[in-house]
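pls design
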């Protein structure tokens, strides 16, 4: 049987498919050995087709990071029960959304943070990151307005909460949490309750 020829560039949403294949590779163990040519093979298109969307592999990584921040922002926004809910419930919803993302997509989150802090990062990546983390900053500011959170720069106050949640996610992904006989669900509510007390005026 003759080999199937690569499809032409007219492929539907090739950019989205290339990003999906790249994320699959990231989940499977990394992107170091992944080339645009290999992505073209996986997508079934000519080896030149990906360059219509990504000038090089770094451009692909940047797009993957931007998409990750956009997804994280949507998930945190969707989880928020809204300003009428008790502040503790809003914090708990944000915490669960963030820790879920950080444990489910740990490799992607590493890529996102690495991309965000590059000096030459494209504006779209930084803007997506700012939008995503604008949600927890708004939550801290709402807590301050309600008298549930100490006064001060919301960015500085939020670092404490972020450090606790990122630490919990790292304990989970490194199997240190399970090694101690716990799951994220076992401890997340307790972490939130301690954060509420620690952030109180």
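designed seq:
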């Amino acid at each position: 049987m003759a080999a199937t020829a690569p499809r032409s560039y007219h492929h539907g949403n090739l950019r989205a498919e290339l990003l999906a294949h790249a994320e699959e590779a990231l989940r499977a163990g990394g992107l170091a050995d992944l080339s645009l040519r290999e992505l073209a093979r996986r997508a079934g298109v000519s080896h030149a087709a990906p360059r219509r969307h990504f000038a090089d592999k770094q451009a692909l990584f940047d797009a993957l990071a931007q998409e990750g921040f956009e997804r994280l922002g949507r998930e945190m926004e969707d989880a928020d029960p809204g300003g009428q809910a008790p502040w503790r419930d809003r914090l708990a919803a944000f915490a669960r959304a963030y820790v879920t993302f950080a444990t489910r997509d740990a490799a992607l989150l590493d890529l996102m943070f690495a991309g965000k802090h590059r000096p030459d990062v494209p504006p779209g990546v930084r803007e997506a990151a700012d939008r995503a983390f604008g949600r927890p900053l708004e939550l801290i500011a709402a807590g301050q307005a309600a008298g549930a959170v100490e006064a001060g720069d919301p960015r500085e106050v939020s670092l404490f909460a972020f450090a606790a949640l990122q630490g919990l996610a790292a304990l989970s992904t490194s199997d240190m949490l399970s090694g101690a006989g716990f799951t994220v669900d076992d401890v997340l509510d307790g972490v939130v309750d301690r954060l509420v007390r620690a952030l109180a005026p």
